Amino acid sequence: MAKLTFLGTGTSTGIPLLGCRCHTCISTDPKDQRLRTSALLEIGQHLYTIDCGPDFRQQLLRAGVSNLSGILFTHGHRDHTAGLDDIRAINFIHQKSLPIYLTELLLEQLQHDFRYMFDPHNKYPGVGEVELRHFDQDLFSLEDGMTVQPIPLWHGHLPVHGFRLGNLVYITDASSIPESSWELLKGVEILIINALRDSPHHSHFTVQEAIEISEKLGNPRTYFTHIAHQFGRYAERNPQFPSHIQMAYDGLTIEFDPSWT
Q: Which of 45, 58, 93, 212 is at 20 to 30 A from 204, Cα to Cα?
């Protein structure tokens, strides 16, 4: 079995939201204190993250992670990429560059946002060193041979990707699933999906939409992530859902079968 740990389960602002005094943001329950969305994959002897937002360094320190085998990127928004500079510590200490798995579209975004890392004519000394591993719609393999199926999704008008790893599907920052992607979700046993809040949003699934997707897939074990403060407190909202649905929280670890086909 492999493990997934939720490094962060909050939306782009995190929870508590800076300056907010709402019912959720003033909660002292650790399950209501959410860093920006990211996940840690433990597959055999290898550790990977899905995305690396602005809380990346803090998340790895909190999880006791000092080395990585790579980063899988879902899309190019800053709350999922802003921590890329923090890989320098891994470069320095372990004397290696870090593989990053990404699309050509995302590479263009990173070349813009982190020009000092990617510009061969003006590269700043000591910047993070990466190895580019491109994917599109086809299966790709990680260092240990684990296969990953990218799942094309829409985040408003932006094309993004979820990932299928064995019997687990990870979807964040999505608002619609193309018809052609439903086939890739068949038989999923563990669904991780963004559920921003109850009210509609132009680029994220609502709570009800996430529930309906879980139902359409046969009610797999489902975890909500990328949660906004409007969602409410964990202790009050989580008991409202059916037993197969839970709100994820920072630090939660689940097991999955990476060999499931």
A: 58
